[in-house]
Amino acid sequence: MKSIAFHLNCLCQGGAERVVSNLANRFAQEGIKVYVATEWYDENEFELDERVTRVHVGLRSEDEKKSRVTKFLLRVKYLKEFVKEYQPDVLVAFAHRANYRALMAAGNSNIPVVISVRINPIGYYDAFSDKVQIKWLFPKAAGCVFQTQEQRDFFKPYLQDNSTIIMNPINPKYFKVNRSDSPDKTVVHHARLVDFKNQPMLVRAFLKVHKKHPDYDLKIYGPDSMDGTKEILEKIISDNNADGFIHLMGPCDTLEIEIPKGEVYAYSSDYEGMPNSLLEAMAMGMPVVSTDCPCGGPKAVIRDGENGFLIPVGDEDALADRISRLIEDKELSARMGRRAKEIEQVASLDAIYVQWKEYLDKVTQK
């Protein structure tokens, strides 16, 4: 394999975008020609290595007033033109609609398409239109990369024999962190403020923690997704006069400095693929509490009670209890943090790169 193209919507600071940027840069470092074909440019995007070529394959200014169906067909057309011009050895699509576009754009060409499922399929891949497209398009895929076994099982029988499971790679900078022996009295969290990550549940749980431990703060780092979650959080904070100890920190470019200052890390999602934020926290040696959310990402990396705590989805009492336990039992907290950091053995960028490289070489040699 001498060249590879990744296709996704953009490179804004989300989970799939983080994985693509890390992989694209790593493949480029190994001398492989890498293209990243995106639909649009956004603010606060992940950076690409200068050796990576980014190509715009989205709608053009003259397309904005066209019908929805026409826009859909144009997106496929522009991606098809990209594939024909650049002729990558393999096209790797990330995320829901990008998977469909890639399979349609490649068509009957000899360029293999590998798709990638990055979210809980239930609620995202089970609408009638999805069932039709999956039955029609997914058998055309040369392969598929899942993050968890639960994702893989959902797509029987279309993507079993030629699929694999690969964890998300963690940026190497998070493994280089040395945490203080006396961290700040702070519970920390970092992720986009978006409905399915259920940060309101985290805030309500922390209000209970704060009653027992009034000298502790909660800091939530992450950009606003503009879906109303930030406003919900602000109202909860205001209604409880909590603005002195619950802080919405906004986006941060130095998470490897700020997160390790905290004493406990909490994750509250209702569903996920493989949560990068949780992996990063573990890589930094943080004692973590996470929901055991579908489709199995946290459960794949956390051994409850050993290298972190798992709690039921939406259970703010359980979240408050586990946070309090880690605050109160410093020895337990330190031990969990050390064991969490062992995730480097399976999720370093080098380890994940090797798995992707071996799988894509296998696909392109068929």
UniProtKB/TrEMBL annotation:
Native organism: Butyrivibrio proteoclasticus (strain ATCC 51982 / DSM 14932 / B316)
Domain annotation Glycosyl transferase family: ranges: 173-342
UniProt feature coiled coil, ranges: none
Pfam short name (any one): Glyco_transf_4
This protein's record includes keyword Transferase: yes
Protein name: Glycosyl transferase GT4 family
Keyword Flavoprotein tagged: no
Keywords from the named record: Transferase
InterPro entries named in the record: Glyco_trans_1, Glyco_trans_4-like_N
Gene Ontology molecular functions: transferase activity
Superkingdom of source: Bacteria
Annotated PANTHER family: GLYCOSYLTRANSFERASE
Record-annotated Glycosyltransferase subfamily 4-like N-terminal domain positions: 14-172
